[in-house]
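pipeline stage [seq->struct] | target=Amino acid adenylation enzyme/thioester reductase family protein | organism=Saccharomonospora cyanea NA-134 | residues=571
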Amino acid sequence: MDPAETITAAFARQVAARPDTVAVSADGTELTYAELDVRSDRLAGYLHGLGVSAEDAVGVALPRSADLVVALLAVLKAGAAYLALDPQQPEERRTLVLKDADVDVVITPELLAGVPEHGHAPPEPPASGERTAYIAYTSGSTGIPKGVCVPQRAVLRLVFDQDFLDIRPDDVFLQLAPVAFDASTLELWGPLLNGARLVVTPPGDVSPRDLAALVRDSGVTVLWLTAGLFHTVVEAGADALRGLRCLLAGGDVLSAAHVDRALRALPDTRLVNGYGPTENTTFTACHVIAEPVGDASVPIGLPVNGTTVHLLDDTLRPVPDGQVGELYAGGLGVATGYRNDPALTARKFLPDPFSDLPGARLYRTGDLARRRPDGVLEFHGRVDDQVKIRGFRVEIGEIEAALRRHPEVRDVAVVAQQPDGDRVLAAFYVSELTMTGAELREHLAPIVPRYMMPSVFCHVDALPLTPNGKVDRERLSATTLPDRPDLSTDYRAPSTEDETWLAELWADLMQVREVGVDDDFFELGGHSLMATRITVEIAERYGRTIPAVAFYENPTIAELARLLAEGSDDA
């Protein structure tokens, strides 16, 4: 690959080759490649006028829309890197990442309204694949998120000449993942740099039924789903996605049973398990699943083109095939490091002793893996306390640090538990007071994203310790959670058929024995993916669709039961 190649140059080739082809479809808006080029030029010129220059970071705070795609491309044309902001991000965390990344300009709907109709494009920045394309903040073990700087050559390596997915001009990609997370890298730049079409999902949560309709009506051929959403979609009926040419899933361990169901439902769809940390640009290894998995685990596959994988021991020596070692990733996908954190960069990005290229580095993933005789990799857990929750990477230490800021919390340990196949976070805290989950959630809400919120809070007199004096996290992970967590409401039993059915459903999904009709969905540990699963069950029982937003507006069983009794599909 040409080291001077850039995203904007690759996009310009597509503009020249197919100017009148639709590049982006978003909620009734369509932009051709030529129109997307002109609009992004105009915004890039405006950003340049605001003082944005090469290697700056520009915040992007826009919902999923055509304007979002225009903005991301414009930032790159201005020579800067984009920092996409999660709309559900707590204000304190947003302020922190904007300060850490030295962001002076944030693209908002208000800023876009001020862009003149006729503007000039900024000067062309020097061509270099090492220029930062975007900064993605991930959870940090010290309590502070860390900004991964992904270079343009890493993005190009992901979307060109890959065995796991041959992107064609007639493909249609769905942009579904939050742009603040690196799953969106393939969704966005895969189609736009290969002359294909990008369909942007409307803002808000999407039910499996909505997703299937969008795939069908838009002619989507390539879809990427997090592991949790993949499982939910399969349970709702994967045959609704039969128009897909390729279905990619990943971000966490895939259930073999769900994979086998998807294979049966989608015989003509290429099913791919994708593995990789943000620091190695979306995918490090991929496994094309061609046969039923059965009782085995789903492999993470072979290194993708442009990537090397080494399984090393504690002395950084290769382990023999068949033995478990820590996975180190090298090649063109490796990030340049962490924004404004050279010390952490030096610890995690090491000189690559296996490469002849000057300056080549390996990223230490912290993941454990084993290489089979056929070269295929199998995932075998972590070397630290990092976990994946619904596809999001979570450093336990960040949650613990946030909880310790509560004046009444003397000590705390957060662990992942997997009572029913869905991994949840449980917080065990030491305090002279027993607090409700609502109190601790209220404390955490402005500090950590919703996906990092523990599902359950347990008051303990002391944290259990191992013989060497460390917190016994294995014991906490195996601790049986209480039948009913500490809540801000007293238990009130269901009194109608609808309330009883909903209470039993919630109890089953949340692994809580007693759910009262006044209990808050989110205080019980509910989240958007669980809400989606409940809407699927409601659709099957009542033959009607309840939007996921209903759980935010009617977060108790009593309120949701009243909504069902009203018989309105659009409540």
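stage status: PASS
auto-comment: The CA atoms of residues 182 and 282 lie 6 Å apart. DSSP finds 18 helices and 25 strands in the chain.
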